[in-house]
Every structure is written in C-alpha cells, then in structure tokens.
Design goal:
The complex is a heterotrimer. Chain A is mostly helical. Chain A is built from 16 helices and no strands. The longest helix of chain A is centred in the N-terminal third of the chain and has 34 residues. Classes of the chains: A mainly alpha, B mainly alpha, C alpha/beta. Chains A and C meet through helix 4, helix 8 and helix 15 of A and strand 2, helix 5, helix 12 and helix 13 of C. Chain B: Keywords: Cell membrane, Membrane, Transmembrane, Transmembrane helix, Transport. Chain B: It is a multi-pass membrane protein. Chain B: This is Sugar ABC transporter permease.
C-alpha cells in the first residue's frame, strides 16, 4: 500500500517509525529494563486483541457473503456457514442471475455508474471551492451559509421527496438522468468536510503571506490550497460516490422507467421477485439466496474499487509541506 | 485562548469593505454550491415547512398538523424508541470510532491500512444490499454468529429481535455499516496533526494515552463535533435499520418503530404529506437544537 | 468576546419565538389529515380521459408477471406496450401507492395497467387521489371489461376488488387455504386426515405425545390470521361501508381459534416460527405432518423451499368446526390487475388485462392458481402432470376456491403486518394468543383509524 510512501511517514525521523517499535515509552526509556518491555508487550497484545476483535466483527459477515454464492440455496441454510460449495456454484448462480430479465443487472450497473460519476464531477467542482471559500475567505453571509447547510443536512429526507419531485416536474426534468444527477450533486456533507479540512490544515498566516506577496485570491486557491487538497478531494469523492451509489429512494421516485434503474432499485426488484421474500412469486423462480448474494457482491465491487483508489490519495497528499514552514 | 490573535487579521480584512478581493472571491468560490443548495436544499426544505403548516386545500393551519401528530398513538413510542437508540448509538460511535482511529494511527501503519479497508468494507453493503446478509445473520439456526446468539440464550430469530433488543441491535447494524467510514475520516484527521507536535509531546514525557487526551483529541475537536452532529441527525432519522430487520423478519417489527418511518407512513400510506412534513420538521428542530449546541461548544464555525 | 461574535443565534431564537406565536394565532384552516378525509369517500362518477385509439400503454408488473405481458405482446404485435418492472408491492412494500400519489399531484405518469401482489391496494386505488383526482383504478364493470368475462371468475374472487358495487380490479390468482399434509408421514404414523378443527386439535395433541417434534401447523407466519382466524370466521375487520369497519376479536369465533392454537402451541405441535425462516427450513421442514395454508404452499414452499421429495405432499379440503353448518376458509394473497382511470387507451388496457387473467396460454402454466375458472381447470391438469403431489390436488383446490369466508374484508392496512408486529413477538415471549387478543384488537383499531376508517365495535 502506498501509504508507507507518504510524505508524512517519510518525514518522520527513522527511529520514530512505529512499525517495529511498539511504544514510544520503550524507546524513550532506554535503560528502563524488563518492566517497560513487559508493558510494551502488554500494549501490543491489547492492540492486537482489540483491533482483531473488531476485525472479526466487521469482516466475518463479509466472509460469509463471499462464500454464499458458491453454495446452493439448501447448502446456505443447512451446511456450516463457512463451508465452501464449489466454483460451479458461482457459475450457476451467475447464469441464473444473468438470465433475470436478460442480463438487466449489467444495465443497472451502467446506470449507477452514470449517475454516481456524473454527480461526482459536479460535486467536486462545486464543493471543494465552496469549502475553501467558507474556511479561508471572509464574506458577508458566511456564517449564514454554514448554518443553512447544517440545517438542510439535518432535514429528514422523507419530507424532501415530494418537494423535489414537484420541482423536477416543474422544470420538466422528471424521467431524465438529470433528475437524479443534480440532486445527487448537492452534497453539503462534502462542503463541511472540505471546510473543516481547510480551516484546520492551512494556517491563515500562510495565506496572508501569499496575499502580501501580491498573489490574487484565485492564485492563492490554485497554488496553495489545491495542491494540498488531494486528501480531501479523495475523501469527498469517495463519500459522495458511495452515498449516490447506494441511494435507493431518490432514483426510485424520480425514474419512471425500469430501463433507467440503478443497481439499488434493481436489487430491490430482484429481492422482491425472489421466492425468499415474495411468497406469491410462484414456481420456476431462479433467484434464491445464492443469486441474491452474488448480485449483492457484484453491485458493491465498484464501491470497494473506488475506496482502494481513494485511500491511496487520502493519506499520501496530507501535509505536503504546508504546515512545515 | 488563541482566538483573538487569529481573528484579528480576518477582522481587518472584513472591515475593508465591499471592494475587498478576498470578499468578492469568497462569493465566487461558493457560488456553484450555493446554486445547488438553493435548488435542492433550501427550496425543498422551505416547501416542506410550508406543507407542515398548511392543509391539503392550501390553507394555513398554524401548528394544527403538529398537534395532530403529537396526538397520534404511535408518536410517543416512536420518539421514545429513537431517544433510547440515540443514547446507545452516539455513545458507542464516539468512543469506538475515536478509539479505533487512534489505535490504528498509533502503530503498525502498514497493517492498519489493510485494517481500515476491512473495517470499511461493510460500508459498501448499505440498505438493500445487506438484506440477505441480515436475513441469515440474525437467525441462530443458520447464522455465522449462531454460537454467539445462542450464548445469549436466543434460539430463534424471534428471540433475537425481541422488542427490548432492538435499540442495541440497530446500533450494531448501523455501527457495522457506518463506523468504517468514520474511522477513515478520523484517521485522515489524525494524519493532519504535524508529527513535530506529537514528537514534542513524546520528548516531554507524555505517554500514548496522555498524547491522545492532551494533544490529539483537542485537535480533532472540529471533526468530532462534525461527526456528533451528523451521527445525531442520522440517529433521529433512523429508517433503514428497522426497515431492514422488519423485512428479514417478515414484519415482526412495527412499521412505525422510528419517527422517520412514521413520517413515511403518513406520506405514502395515508397520503398525508402535511402530517409527514410536520413530523419531519419536529426531527429537524430537535436535530438543529443539538447541532447548534455542538457547533458553538466546539467552535465549528470559527477558524483556528 | 464570544457572545459578541455570534449575535445572530440569539436574534434567530427570538425570531423563531415570534414566528411560532404568529403561527399559532394565524391558523385559519383545519388541520385535517389528508385529501380523502374531508371529502365524501365514495368515488365520483367515472369519467374516462379522452381516448386515443392505438396509443401506447404503460404497464407496471413485477418480475414474475412481466413474462405474461411479454407473451401478450408477442401474440399481439401491433399493440404498443411499454413495460416497467417494479416490486409488485410484494412483502409489504407500497411502491405503487407512493408513485401514484406523486402522479396525482403532477397530473401525469400513471401506468395504464398495474399489477399488484396485494389486493389491499384496492382500498386506496378506489378512493379519490390527492387534490381531488379521480380514483386511480377504473371501475372495470362500467363498460371497460365485459360482464361475461367478469362472470367467469371463481365465486367470490372479485369480492376484494368490489367497493360499493363497482369492481376496481381484476383478480390474477387465488390463494385459497387448504389443509396440506405429508401423506407418507401420515401413512407411516397411521393417522387419518382430519375433516374438522376438533379432529385436527385432537390429532395435534396426539402427535405431540406420540411423535414429539412433528408439527401440524405454524403460528409465527404473518399470515397466520388469514389461515386460522379467517377460516374460523373471526370478524377481525369487516367493512360495513367503504370506510367503516367493525373489529371484534372478542367474538367467540375468534376465541375458539385462539384456544385451539394456544393448546397446540403449548403441546408443541404448532410452531411459533415462520415457515420461511432459515431456522425452520433447516430444522423443522422435514417434520411437517400437516400445515393449513394457501394453495401456493405446494410449489413455492414444499417443492422449492423445503425441497420435500415427490409423492409425499397432498392437499385436503379446508377444515370445519363441527358446530358450523359449512366449512369456510381464508386466503393468503392473490394478485390483482388495475386499469388506470386516467388511461388514454382503455380498450388496449382492458384487452391486455383480460388476456393475462383469462387466457389459458398464460394462466394454465402460471405459478399460482388462476382466479378465472376455465384457466384454473387447465392449470390443475398441469399440476397433475408435474407428478409432484402424492394425490391430485384438484378436488381440494376447487372446493376451497368457493369456500372463502366473505366477512374478512380487504382493507388498506395489512392484517399480516399487525399480527406479525404485535402477536408474534408476544408468542415468543411465552404469552398466549388468547391473552393478546385485546392488544391485537386495539392495534387493528388504531391502525384503521389512522388511515381514516371509522371503527365500530359491536
């Protein structure tokens, strides 16, 4: 993982590298002897136990989910939860899943990608400068803007569905991809993240110095803030992408045509048509637990890829020199 | 108190008047966002507030819808449920997220990157995607965690999701999906603290715990405040988890367990958007009140 | 310094106080719950939209019924159809209602034809929509579908669709309850299939003693009220007018069934689980001796879910209380088709709905028991051909189809959801159904009045 190459880590004095040095007290103590070493070992054990326990908590259900498509429906229920079925099982499950409405799952993924990436682009273009402006420039209404942002973040979504729908209808956008992309692009969460990041990362005096040097406000933003913004761009991009990818209700309400459905709405259709949940689905239904598990896995892969991708920038760009001066 | 010193230059620039470039550029920077905010945040919210104080014939009814929803037989139980859930949820989230982020940041950074990824993975399994998982997970007979559920003395799905267990159960589900994301944010925030500061603390003889309490936590103040506000708002708007458990248990949980579910029922089962909006405004007011307390205590709107 | 720096919250607070007091004073309308409540609930005369012959029709169906529509399209290539797949309102969803509410507000977007897996939808679809829009569902008996077609449905099949004498939907399938039993096990144990509830209870107690672990029924399914209490003619919700309902769980018709279930639950031969729970499938599925339940249990539950081998499962006619003159049964689900009253091509919509509900081309091979009599005969012949059942299910199914007790009305609220969230958790805490009847009744009444019903207690 790239994180080890990050400037933050390399800037550290060699001796302070924590990877093989369990605690600072150990190093600091020097001649401290056995008691300190025992404490260090205990600390290491505690660390391993706690993080390990949470690892089990977070990962175990996922391991189960990964194994589920290898089995048959009967095996999922009757066999040991962590048994492995066969690779043929995955092939069968995929064939059944793909035969659901002639491979509609592929078009769900395509639609999701269009909505999520489209919105992501607009989000980044609007929220990064906005967060910067709120953090580091002064203008009348700054506090009002922060408060209003907070307010709309807190408003329950259920109440906003009808107004949004009527609004989209009024401008003739219902049924188009914009009825989903535009509301997705409004991402107050990201503006706040950027605001907090810039306000706690870039010291005011750095900007004042740049201004004194005669830099225009725009230059200050592009030459000081933007180079430093890589981690926050990664963070905002990631959370925006995931939020939109997983959003069910808005596309469900806005899109009139099942050909436009994104993965979440599609999955819901898949789920309700399966005999596992829909008792009236009748016979000959191929969608059972293994197929549902596989569909779930297929739809979360993009999210995990984006996570891995953004985790690289998340840490590597942090503190690229700014606060060091 | 460093506030006066850092505020001083800003004050002066604020006094420079409308021709000030910083001020003008401020508007340029936020302009794109403000357009979206007005269109998809403010306008719908204002409309929702209007719905909450009017009736289906468009007449102003004052607080009538609010009074009507207060009297609903489900109102008290729904708000009671969510209050209990909030206490458990916020406590768990704050302590564990900050604690885990500090631990992951403290040592073995190579391992911790992998850990952070694995902690996050459930975050991708939100809503519909996790229905199947919980269907199996909560049934002791087939669950990978069946031994644990049985250790509590629960032999059937119905015993696992008994009414008293629900706030804790929803916390577990919400924590499983949501904590990883917050840990990533907190970790990124911890990375923000210059190494020199931590190094200096170490040289001064501060242990790991003291460094965390005296240096790292105060510097994370804004991030924690932010998390608190959002977690509180998300908690009051609890919807997905009860819906999820209800789906996997064929309806063993009331469809109005949380106020947000009740609001949904008002809007889409009873066709009463006004009552639904009134309930939503209640939640917003509660959320906002708590948010403002946090904002001003943590100085979220101030610049460091 | 701090307080000086933040002058506005205080200002905002006082502004809010003023606003609130103004609001309280300014109330000029009444805060009634919604569109329907203040207006007469009976439907206004049905006035179709201006018709466009040959116009495209929009059809919403669940993934299971989409093939039926596609089959119709293939047989009628000149009809323009646009198909949208949606959840079909399965498993408690109310997607159709949610969307129709929004369409009512904008005045367009309604599907010309919509399938729903639950006839509870009739309750809202037959009422005026938001802002005084006419009911979403067209009364099909008013010149939309010919009476001769409607007469071909099984007796009582269209009852749930009928409000004030008008038929607002067309029934796709029936889900009449029968007594399922495992013929092989019954023969092995030397038991006779009961014909009355009294015999059923006696056999249940006998099974509990002689073959502990074996089951004669389940009470943990959400649809348990529709299996047991409906058959017992318990007035859980009887409509006396379109928005007027009588709820009386204290009636002896209800207590007799509660007593029967409580006895067998205590004996251990009726399970508190749901038949679809993973635990039940894993541990109890092969111990099911008898199971009162809907006609779709045969293929969906025994064949697909339990994977019970061929030649074991059979169905008997619904049980009777010996004190009653006839036996009655209930019904668990059964989908319906709606035709939109806003449709611009009622003719095409009606033709499609008629075809999918009555044509042997689709219904004879459908997953569930057709509501149309002629199609049902063909369907039953098909079931026999599968060779799955130990005995022909046709006699039991056909008889049960005509025995559904009419006093259990289709309401906008779901009896299943109420039972599952109030009674089932209590059962699992060790309480009896008899002790929960009062709580259960209150839950039904509360839910009914929250949806604008007038609730009567006899």
């Amino acid at each position: 993982m790239r994180i080890m190459d990050s400037p933050a880590a390399t800037a550290r004095p060699r001796a302070a590298r924590p990877a093989d040095r369990p605690t600072s007290s150990h190093r600091r103590g020097g001649a401290g002897g056995g008691a300190q070493r025992a404490r260090a070992a205990a600390a290491r054990l505690l660390w391993t136990l706690v993080t390990g326990a949470f690892l089990v908590f977070f990962a175990l259900p996922v391991v189960w989910l990964l194994l589920a498509p290898t089995k048959t429906d009967g095996q999922i229920i009757r066999d040991d939860p962590f048994s492995f079925g066969s690779l043929d099982g995955v092939v069968t499950a995929w064939r059944n899943l793909y035969s659901f409405q002639d491979g509609v799952i592929v078009s769900w993924l395509e639609n999701s990608a269009i909505y999520a990436f489209g919105a992501l682009l607009i989000t980044l273009v609007t929220s990064i400068p906005a967060g910067y402006g709120l953090a580091l420039t002064r203008f009348a209404g700054r506090r009002l803007l922060l408060t209003v942002t907070l307010l709309v973040m807190i408003m329950p979504n259920v109440a906003l569905v009808l107004p949004l729908y009527l609004e989209m209808e009024a401008v003739g956008l219902t049924g188009t991809i914009w009825s989903v992309i535009l509301p997705f692009s409004f991402f107050p969460f990201g503006v706040y993240l950027t605001y907090i990041y810039f306000s706690s990362t870039i010291p005011q005096d750095l900007l004042s110095a740049a201004r004194l040097d005669g830099c225009s406000e725009w230059r200050v933003f592009t030459s000081i803030a933007l180079p430093l913004s890589r981690p926050i761009v990664a963070l905002v991009a990631f959370f925006n992408f995931v939020g939109n990818w997983n959003n069910f209700f808005l596309p469900f309400v806005m899109l009139p045509d099942s050909a436009q459905y994104p993965a979440q709405v599609g999955l819901n259709n898949l789920l309700t048509s399966s005999a596992v949940f829909n008792t009236s689905s009748g016979v000959g239904n191929q969608i059972m637990r293994p197929e549902l598990a596989l569909a779930t896995l297929v739809t979360v892969v993009p999210v995990l890829l984006v996570f891995l991708f953004s985790q690289r920038s998340l840490v590597s760009g942090m503190l690229a020199g700014a606060t060091k001066n | 108190m460093t506030a006066p010193a850092t505020l001083a230059p800003g004050r002066r620039s604020g006094a420079r008047g409308a021709g000030d470039p910083s001020r003008r550029m401020g508007y340029v920077f936020v302009s794109g966002y403000v357009v979206l905010l007005l269109a998809f945040g403010v306008l719908p919210t204002v409309y929702a507030v209007w719905l909450s104080i009017s009736n289906s014939r468009g007449q102003l009814v004052g607080l009538g819808n609010f009074i009507r929803t207060f009297a609903d037989y489900r109102f008290l139980s729904a708000f009671g449920h969510v209050l209990l859930y909030l206490v458990i949820w916020l406590g768990t989230l704050m302590v564990l997220v900050v604690g885990l982020a500090l631990m992951l940041h403290g040592r073995m950074r190579r391992t911790s990157a992998v850990m952070r990824f694995l902690y996050y993975v459930p975050g991708a399994l939100a809503g519909v995607a996790s229905v199947l998982l919980w269907l199996i997970m909560l049934d002791p007979a087939a669950s990978p965690a069946g031994w644990l559920l049985r250790a509590f003395g629960w032999e059937t799905l119905a015993q696992v999701i008994a009414p008293d267990h629900l706030p804790v159960l929803f916390t577990v589900i919400a924590f499983w999906t949501g904590a990883g994301g917050w840990i990533v944010i907190m970790y990124a925030a911890l990375n923000n603290i210059p190494d020199e500061v931590l190094e200096a603390a170490r040289i001064d003889g501060a242990g790991v715990v003291q460094t965390a309490l005296r240096i790292q936590l105060p510097l994370l103040r804004k991030w924690i405040a932010y998390m608190l506000i959002l977690a509180f708002a998300a908690g009051t708007q609890l919807f997905v988890e009860p819906q999820l458990v209800s789906t996997v248990s064929w309806g063993m949980i009331s469809d109005s367990w949380s106020p947000n579910q009740l609001s949904y029922l008002y809007a889409f089962q009873a066709g009463d958007f006004h009552g639904a909006a009134a309930l939503a405004v209640n939640l917003m007011v509660v959320g906002l009140a708590c948010a403002l307390v946090v904002v001003f205590r943590a100085g979220l709107f101030e610049r460091d | 310094m701090r307080t000086n720096d933040f002058p506005w919250p205080r200002r905002a607070a006082s502004a809010a106080v003023i606003a609130c007091s103004l609001l309280a004073a300014a109330a000029c309308g009444s805060a009634d719950p919604g569109p329907g409540a203040a207006e007469p609930s009976t439907a206004a005369a049905f006035s179709p939209a201006p018709q466009q012959a040959g116009g495209e029709i929009l059809v919403w169906a669940d993934a299971t019924r989409v093939p039926a529509v596609e089959q119709y399209q293939k047989a009628h290539p000149d009809v323009k159809i646009k198909i949208v797949t949606y959840s079909g309102n399965a498993n408690g969803a109310n997607d159709l209602q949610t969307k129709v509410q929004l369409f009512d507000r904008t005045g367009n977007g309604w599907p010309d034809v919509a399938f729903s897996t639950t006839f509870g939808d009739v309750a809202w679809a037959s009422r005026n929509g938001a802002q005084g829009k006419q009911p979403y569902a067209a009364p099909v008996n008013r010149g939309v579908i010919e009476q001769s077609v409607l007469d071909g449905f099984a007796k009582g099949a269209l009852d749930p669709c009928t409000v004030d004498g008008d038929v607002y939907c067309v029934r796709n399938d029936l889900a009449q309850n029968v007594l399922w039993y495992n013929k092989k096990l019954m023969d092995d144990f030397g038991y006779e299939v009961p014909t009355t509830w009294e015999e059923y209870q006696a056999l249940g107690e006998k099974v509990a003693k002689e073959h502990p672990g074996y089951l004669v029924g389940t009470a943990g399914d959400p649809w348990a009220p529709e299996v047991y209490f409906w058959a017992s003619q318990c007035p859980a919700s009887t409509l006396t007018a379109p928005r007027k309902v009588t709820v009386d769980l204290g009636s002896d018709k209800c207590t007799r069934m509660a007593g029967l279930l409580d006895t067998l639950i205590a004996a251990g031969s009726i399970s508190k689980d749901s038949v679809f729970g993973a635990g039940f499938i894993k541990e109890k599925a092969d111990k099911v001796l008898m199971l009162p339940g809907p006609s779709w249990y045969g293929q969906v539950l025994f064949a697909s879910t339990f994977k019970t081998p061929k030649n074991q499962i059979a169905a008997a006619v619904p049980l009777k209380f010996s004190a009653d003159p006839t036996n009655y049964t209930g019904n668990v689900g059964g989908g319906v088709w709606f035709i939109s009253s806003h449709s611009k091509n009622l003719k095409a919509a009606a033709d499609l709905v008629t075809w999918v509900t009555t044509s042997n081309d689709y219904q004879a091979t459908a997953g569930t028991y057709p509501a149309f009599k002629q199609a049902a005969t063909a369907w039953l012949a098909g079931q026999k051909e599968t060779g799955y059942f130990a005995e022909d299910v046709a006699p039991a199914f056909t008889e049960a189809a005509g025995l559904v007790w009419p006093g259990w009305s289709a309401t906008q609220y779901s009896q299943e959801a109420i039972y599952a969230s109030t009674v089932v958790p209590a059962l699992n805490e060790g309480k009896t159904i008899a002790s929960m009847l009062e709580t259960w009744e209150t839950a039904i009444k509360n839910k009914a009045s929250s949806l604008g019903y007038t609730v009567d207690s006899p």
